[in-house]
Amino acid sequence: VLEHLNMHPQKILSEIRRVLKPGGCVILSTPNVSSWKKIYALSNGDWGYDSPTFSEGWGHRYEYSYYQVRTLLMLSGFSIVQEKAADVYFDDPKGSRPAMQLVLNVFSKIITGDMRCAAKLWRRRGSGLFFCASKADVAGEPATSTLMNV
């Protein structure tokens, strides 16, 4: 529900960490603002952001990128156990045209020498972000878990 909060999510994540047992895990999923779906929509002049969110609705107040969620979890005292970005929505771009646009975009990054950006665009392109993060043990070591298999 991070995308629906009207306060900074680090406050909520810190509270979740506080009440979690040592070695406990939090499983978090949220839409990916930097997904290929959002980039594709924006390039076609349609920012698919939930506009009524700043009124009294329960829509998305803020959407996060993979790196923002990862940073929020780490700053709140969690260790990342597992992470994944995946296309999960019925309206995710499908078919040869969006696939070709993604490939050409990644290829243009490679040609210009921006390999790191190309890899990030390819790996973090999914419309949904999924994280499993653990609370550090009492000794300060991160707990290990195989709880989530996204």
Question: What is this structure, in a nutshell?
Answer:
The chain has 150 residues and is an alpha+beta fold.
Descriptive labels:
150 residues, alpha+beta, 3-stranded antiparallel β-sheet, 5 helices, 3 strands, 36% helix, disordered C terminus
Could you describe the 3D structure shown?
The protein is of the alpha+beta class. It has five helices and three strands. The protein has helices spanning 9-19, 36-43, 66-75, 96-111, 115-123, and strands at residues 25-31, 78-86, 128-135. The protein has a three-stranded antiparallel sheet with strand order 1-3-2, with helices on one face. The longest helix has 16 residues, at 96-111. The two termini are 18 Å apart.
Approximate helicity band: 25-40%
* Strand elements, count: 3
Please give the alpha-carbon distance between the first and last residues: 18 Å
Beta-strand content estimate: 15-25%
What's the shape? globular
- Provide a count of the helices: 5
Q: Whole-number radius of gyration?
A: 17 Å
Identify the strand order in the major beta sheet: 1-3-2
Q: How is the biggest beta sheet arranged?
A: 3 strands, antiparallel
Spans with pLDDT under 50 lasting ≥5 residues?
A: 138-150
Give the integer mean of the pLDDT values.
Answer: 77
How would you spell out the order of helices and strands?
A: HEHHEHHE
Helix-strand category: alpha+beta
